[in-house]
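Severity: low
Component: inverse-folding endpoint
Summary: output formatting inconsistent between runs
Steps to reproduce: submit the following structure tokens with default settings.
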């Protein structure tokens, strides 16, 4: 339980401050854009120049990554003349981390001066017209762990970050979503980029067929094991959020289908779509100052 007067017993405001100050003292980069790289998507950081990399284990208070396909590095650098920071791997609830630890980096980004966050993930497609290899721009989400009380903002609220009852009906910035759609069209990606609703389950197992059917009936277009805690904390502290999901597999909704999903298949699809995904993210970063209120350095 959270201790009284201390918003969270595992991460205090002093912890966040100490980590942010440590990073600000070690790097000259002052990023305005942060990117969280999902499973197998760490290469999104490959195209930055003036790169400075910190291993998670060397950063005070940072958790470490335990999932294959997650490199465990924080990469600062310039991309298309924008100062950026990339998380080459994220933390998941199923690794045993509290949601406070899972979302720790988001508040660090806020304290570093980040204004926009691009959150990426790998997920399984639930609706008929979504194929493996497609990219889904996240329009909205269903926070299933949140319904069950696994929520990163539970416990006393820290007003230094945001309000007690944040609105989530506009969690995914409309202008950034439009920009991502327009860029997809310009790049000739329209056939495999669409908007949709992402649902988070805690994992680590993939869905049963009955569970997949239920999630689909509830309005989910894809399902994964991350992203929503980070987006919730980002929205709470007033960061602009764009969510991009690579559909790495079709989730089986049919008892007669034989295929069985596994993590290797997820990573393989990330490799196959890496260039396209990277191209989309890079172009969004290059053009995101076209969106109102977004700082261009
Ligand atoms: O970090 P993300 O959400 O991209 O990772 C997905 C969900 C699981 O961690 C893993 C399953 O293969 O990939
Ligand atoms: N829960 C879940 N997470 C995924 N991550 C990538 N594919 C899937 C999937 O099918 N289900």
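Observed output (run 2 of 3):
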């Amino acid at each position: 339980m959270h201790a009284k007067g201390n918003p969270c017993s595992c991460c205090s405001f002093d912890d966040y401050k100490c980590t942010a100050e440590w990073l600000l003292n070690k790097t000259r980069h002052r990023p305005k854009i942060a990117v969280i790289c999902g499973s197998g998507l760490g290469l999104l950081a490959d195209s930055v120049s003036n790169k400075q990399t910190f291993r998670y284990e060397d950063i005070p208070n940072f958790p470490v990554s335990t999932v294959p396909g997650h490199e465990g590095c924080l990469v600062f650098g310039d991309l298309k003349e924008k100062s950026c920071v990339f998380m080459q791997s994220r933390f998941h609830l199923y690794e045993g981390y509290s949601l406070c630890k899972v979302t720790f980096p988001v508040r660090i980004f806020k304290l570093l001066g980040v204004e926009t966050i691009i959150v990426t993930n790998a997920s399984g497609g639930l609706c008929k017209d979504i194929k493996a290899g497609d990219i889904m721009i996240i329009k909205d989400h269903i926070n299933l762990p949140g319904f069950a009380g696994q929520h990163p903002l539970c416990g006393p609220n820290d007003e230094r970050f945001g309000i007690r009852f944040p609105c989530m009906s506009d969690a995914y910035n409309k202008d950034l979503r439009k920009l991502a759609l327009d860029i997809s069209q310009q790049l000739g990606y329209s056939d495999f980029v669409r908007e949709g609703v992402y649902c988070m389950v805690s994992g680590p197992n993939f869905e049963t067929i009955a569970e997949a059917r239920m999630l689909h009936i509830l309005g989910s277009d894809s399902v994964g094991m991350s992203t929503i805690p980070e987006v919730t904390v980002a929205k709470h502290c007033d960061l602009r959020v764009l969510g991009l999901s690579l559909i790495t597999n079709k989730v089986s909704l049919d008892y007669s289908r034989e295929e069985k999903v596994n993590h290797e298949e997820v990573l393989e699809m990330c490799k196959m779509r890496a260039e396209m995904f990277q191209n989309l993210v890079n172009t969004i970063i290059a053009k995101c100052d076209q969106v109102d209120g977004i700082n261009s350095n």
